[in-house]
Every structure is written in C-alpha cells, then in structure tokens.
Amino acid sequence: MSDEAALARDTNKFESRYLDWLIGPYREDEALYRERSPLFQAERLFKPVIFFHGDEEAVVPPSQTEAIVAALRRSGRPVGYFLYAIEVLELA
User: Fold this and answer.
1) Which one, 9, 18, 82, 92, has least CB within 10 Å?
2) In total, how many domains does the chain have?
3) pTM of the entire structure?
C-alpha cells in the first residue's frame, strides 16, 4: 500500500480495522497516516524499486501501486511496475 489514508477510507469491511491496529484510529490522527504513507515519502527513496500487482486485487487496489509508481517517476527514481491479469498475485 502506498497511501494508508486512502486505504483506511476505501477498504473493505474485513480489512477496515487492520490499519487501526498498525497505525491507530484514522479519524483520530489523519496526519500520522499521511506521514507513514510511502506515497508522500517518494522523494526520499533512492534505491531502485519494482512492483508486482494483480489487476483485480481486492484488498490493496492497483491504484495504490500506480500512485507510488507515478510519484517515484516524477522524482526521477528508477522504478519497475508489472500489472498481472489475475486477482491476487502471490510470489513464492
């Protein structure tokens, strides 16, 4: 995930409390969610990064990956992105 605040607002019911456990209640500290989101830290990443994502992933939608990829590219960072026509991508 690249934008924890967006995920907290838009996630499914099953995952809705996961970020509360990791970060804290979204409604109580929205600024902390932004601070912890890689999307807003892209300019601080210098190593090459590669992303693999399933195009129908239900928990973390492809838009999360596409946002961080775009931010890294705007910052001139080396990034690779592969979107697969499968619901869930699992790497072994």
Assistant:
1) 92
2) 1
3) 0.77
Evaluate if residue 92 carries a pLDDT over 60.
no
Neighbouring C-beta atoms of residue 4, cutoff 10 Å: 24
Does residue 8 register a pLDDT over 80? no
**91, part of any domain:** no
pLDDT per position as a tens digit, 17-26: 777 788 888 8
83 forms bridges with which residues in the sheet? 53
Evaluate whether residue 89 is within a structural domain: no
What DSSP line would sit under the chain, residue for residue?
Answer: ---HHHHHHH--GGGTTHHHHHT--GGG-HHHHHHH-GGGGGGG--S-EEEEEETT-SSS-HHHHHHHHHHHHHTT--EEEEEESSS-----
**Host domain of residue 45:** 4-84
